[in-house]
């Protein structure tokens, strides 16, 4: 963990610390109290960790709590209609159309190629000389980009640069990205970094969309095909070209989140040999020495528990859920005034002393079915909860299960000595300075995809 301040930081110090690592700005009180009120430049804000309060904000009264404008701004691409930018009726319409394109059933046909890509990565790793350290954060970035590229556009690799570039979003914001410009200054919008970046990919998106609209299209029914051909059940209407651009760029920007848990899985396995042994025993029993198939993936409950516990301790979006109250409300018995900011932070909720026993300890058994049933589902939110729940959760879980199942069969990863490991986050969590590890071979990697 990064150092945790014993007391709330002064405004100046908070801004300085949070700029480097927002996790290091979370003080002890946040992990003890279920509702904490603070002020920043006169603005009241509430950090809500009480599961009933989270339910009120994220689910029961969700329309009262839109995302903060400056966060939405960063995801304003062409027409401003993407799921992370839009609110209200336009957002609802898009979610209804897009949910089925990314649900579990839609994702399963991508499983075999994801397995092939993970085995391909295993072959590259097997060629690394013994004892040579590699940064797992970097190594997995390639795997996640390739597998997302396949999900989006099948074998057409022209999509990869968009996914790789947008996947680094949102980097440090430019001032223009955050400002709400008045109508008469609207021309400045064309200088927004977000728009300039996104516009570069317009020609390739136009081509991919047109191909999938064509009656002669004979390719895979990949994610782009499903988006282009999604129709509203009531009106029969689909997404316009501008709306498709927005959503594809939004999904490109968000799809890289699947990378985030992977370095931490291997870090936790390397530091907890008993969990590593249990995982290997499960993989050996279910898959043995043959090639894994998609059917195996649902038979790996310990692997799933391991991933859930990893995302509890290292939530990929640890501080992201910030909302503004449109009207006064009561949350967990506290009055929330109009315009107050409400923050729900997985980093705090998942390590809260009133919600978890020994919260900083790694223990995948917390996610055994009986344990899950015994606690509120609003105490664990790596993918958020309520109507804004992550639309890509099924895709992410498939990518993660495949990556761990394939690579843990072939290798043990060991930490390179002498390098401190510290999680850091602006929006996405990552290991500061990388996650440097060496490999020990386990099962031999087959020489090529069968
Ligand atoms: C481990 C991987 C992932 C995690 C932990 C994760 C987490 C989250 C969280 C916490 C939110 C809610 C943010 C908020 O409301 O402020 C969210 C929303 C979203 N996620 Fe993910 N995500 C992951 C992977 C993905 C992938 C692979 C995609 C796309 C292919 C994706 C697309 C989105 C989109 C579009 C939204 C906005 C949904 C809406 O507001 O309707 N995510 N995600």
Could you characterize the architecture of this molecule?
The protein has 450 residues and is α+β, with helices and mostly antiparallel strands. It has a single domain (11-441), classed as Cytochrome p450, CATH 1.10.630. It is 44% helix and 10% strand. It contains 21 helices and eleven strands. It has helices spanning 11-20, 28-32, 51-60, 69-74, 88-98, 104-107, 111-126, 136-153, 160-166, 175-178, 193-199, 202-213, 223-228, 241-255, 261-271, 273-286, 294-297, 301-313, 346-349, 369-373, 393-410; strands spanning 35-40, 43-48, 134-135, 321-324, 329-331, 334-336, 341-344, 411-415, 423-425, 429-431, 436-441. It is globular, with a radius of gyration of 22 Å. Protoporphyrin IX containing FE (HEM) binds at residues 67, 83-84, 95, 250-251, 254-255, 257-258, 260-261, 316-317, 320-321, 382-384, 388, 390-392, 395-396.
List its salient traits.
single chain, 450 residues, alpha+beta, Cytochrome p450, four-stranded mixed β-sheet, three-stranded antiparallel β-sheet, 21 helices, 10% strand, globular, binds protoporphyrin IX containing FE
Let me know the number of strands: 11
Number of helices: 21
Give the overall shape. Answer: globular
Largest beta-sheet details:
4 strands, mixed
Give the domain tally. 1
What's the CATH topology label? Cytochrome p450
**CATH class value:** Mainly Alpha
Query: Mean pLDDT, as a whole number?
Result: 92
Report strand order across the widest sheet: 1-2-7-4
Distance between the termini: 42 Å
Structural class assignment? alpha+beta
CATH architecture: Orthogonal Bundle
Measured as a percent range, the helix fraction is 40-55%
């Amino acid at each position: 963990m990064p150092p945790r301040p014993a007391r709330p930081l002064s405004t100046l110090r908070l801004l300085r610390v949070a700029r480097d690592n927002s996790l290091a700005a979370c003080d002890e009180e946040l992990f003890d109290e279920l509702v904490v009120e603070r002020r920043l430049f006169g603005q009241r804000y509430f950090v809500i960790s009480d599961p009933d309060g989270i339910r009120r904000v994220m689910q029961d009264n969700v329309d009262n709590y839109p995302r903060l404008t400056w966060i939405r701004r960063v995801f304003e691409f062409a027409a401003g209609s993407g799921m992370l930018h839009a609110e209200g009726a336009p957002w609802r319409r898009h979610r209804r159309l897009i949910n089925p394109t990314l649900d579990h059933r839609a994702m399963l046909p991508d499983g075999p190629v994801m397995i092939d890509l993970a085995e391909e990565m295993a072959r590259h790793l097997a060629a690394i000389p013994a004892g040579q350290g590699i940064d797992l954060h970097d190594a997995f970035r390639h795997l996640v980009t390739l597998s997302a590229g396949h999900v989006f556009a099948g074998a057409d690799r022209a999509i990869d640069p968009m996914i790789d570039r947008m996947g680094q979003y949102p980097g440090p914001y430019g001032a223009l990205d955050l400002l709400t410009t008045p109508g008469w200054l609207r021309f400045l919008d064309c200088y927004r970094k977000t728009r300039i970046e996104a516009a570069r990919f317009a020609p390739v998106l136009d081509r991919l969309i047109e191909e999938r609209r064509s009656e002669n299209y004979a390719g895979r029914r990949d994610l782009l095909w499903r988006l282009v051909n999604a129709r509203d059940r009531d009106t029969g209407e689909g997404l316009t070209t501008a709306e498709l651009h927005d959503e594809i760029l939004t999904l490109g920007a968000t799809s890289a989140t699947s990378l985030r848990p992977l370095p931490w899985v291997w870090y936790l396995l390397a530091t907890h040999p008993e969990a590593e042994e249990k995982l290997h025993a499960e993989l050996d029993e279910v898959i043995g020495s043959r090639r894994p198939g998609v059917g195996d993936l649902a038979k790996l409950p310990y692997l799933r528990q391991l991933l859930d516990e990893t995302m509890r301790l290292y939530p990929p979006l640890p501080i992201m859920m910030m909302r503004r109250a449109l009207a006064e409300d009561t949350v967990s018995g506290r009055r929330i005034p109009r315009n107050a900011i409400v923050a729900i932070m997985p980093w705090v909720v998942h390590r809260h002393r009133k919600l978890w026993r020994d919260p900083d300890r790694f223990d995948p058994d917390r996610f055994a079915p009986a344990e899950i049933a015994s606690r509120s589902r609003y105490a664990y939110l790596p993918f958020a909860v309520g109507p804004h729940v992550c639309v890509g959760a099924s895709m992410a879980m498939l990518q993660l299960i495949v990556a761990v199942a394939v690579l843990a069969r072939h290798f043990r990863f060991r930490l390179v000595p002498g390098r401190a490991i510290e999680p850091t986050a602006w929006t996405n969590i990552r290991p500061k300075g990388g996650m440097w590890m060496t490999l020990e071979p386990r099962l031999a990697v087959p020489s090529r995809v069968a």
